[in-house]
């Protein structure tokens, strides 16, 4: 078992907590109030911009050409994900240019970018990997019950798809290649998953 899988298994409790969170379950069954999803779309777009920047920093620090190219390719996957958010924004009337990050969002983006700037590429990959693996896990777990046919169905379709799973696996190969098991790596991975859980909670707590 590679390091990426060891870290995932060691922190599966947080992944399950996100899967069982009423925000995620509300997306699947279509009962999530519109304003909570609108808030989430704006916050996630802000987060993904930081995520794309972290990929660019990781690419610059990659010790080999394969890593440089792959991190840029992964950044391209984020840009495609942002296009999905752009469609959501049009549908739900969200002006992404006016989005101000909430505390949970800022906490997460500050962590990612400070890690990318201050740590080596292995720790950066570890800090970014939980987001990709978690969303693939959420999408696939929900899709096992069938793809829903309501206004949030694109979310489940996107994150349960083979393309997104491939991106998650690609990032995990760099966790396995560039990282080693130590306390900073374990701490960064768990902290990222805690930020993911708190991100859903912040959106859930928004008043409708």
Give a topology summary.
Blueprint: H1 3-10, H2 12-19, H3 22-29, H4 34-61, H5 65-92, H6 103-118, H7 121-143, H8 153-160, H9 162-178, H10 183-204
Describe the structure.
The protein is mainly alpha-helical. It has a single domain (3-27, 34-204), classed as Heme Oxygenase, Chain A, CATH 1.20.910. 80% of the residues lie in helices and 0% in strands. It has 10 helices and no strands. The longest helix is centred in the first third of the chain and has 28 residues, at 34-61.
> What structural class do the secondary elements suggest?
mainly alpha
CATH class label = Mainly Alpha
Largest sheet: none
Shape annotation: globular
Distance between the termini: 44 Å
Q: Helical amount among residues, as a percent range?
A: over 70%
* Strand percent estimate: under 5%
Q: What does the radius of gyration come to?
A: 16 Å
How many strands appear in the DSSP assignment? 0
Summarize the structure.
The chain is mainly alpha-helical. It has 10 helices and no strands.
Features:
208 residues; mainly alpha; Heme Oxygenase, Chain A; 80% helix; 0% strand
């Amino acid at each position: 078992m590679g390091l990426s899988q060891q870290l995932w298994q060691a922190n599966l409790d947080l992944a399950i907590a996100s899967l069982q969170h009423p925000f995620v379950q509300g997306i699947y069954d279509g009962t999530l109030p519109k304003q909570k999803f609108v808030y989430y779309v704006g916050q996630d777009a802000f987060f993904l911009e930081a995520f794309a920047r972290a990929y660019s920093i990781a690419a610059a620090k990659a010790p080999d050409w394969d890593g440089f190219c792959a991190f840029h390719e992964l950044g391209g996957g984020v840009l495609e994900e942002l296009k999905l958010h752009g469609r959501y924004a049009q549908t739900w009337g969200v002006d992404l240019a006016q989005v101000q990050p909430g505390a949970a969002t800022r906490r997460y983006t500050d962590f990612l970018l400070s890690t990318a700037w201050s740590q080596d590429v292995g720790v950066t990959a570890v800090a970014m990997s939980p987001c990709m693996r978690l969303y693939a896990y959420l999408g696939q777990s929900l899709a096992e019950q069938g793809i829903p046919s309501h206004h949030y169905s694109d979310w489940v379709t996107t994150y349960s798809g083979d393309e997104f799973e491939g991106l998650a696996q690609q990032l995990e190969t760099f966790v396995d290649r560039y990282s080693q098991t130590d306390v900073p790596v374990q701490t960064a991975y768990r902290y990222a998953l805690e930020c993911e859980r708190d991100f859903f909670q912040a959106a859930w707590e928004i008043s409708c």
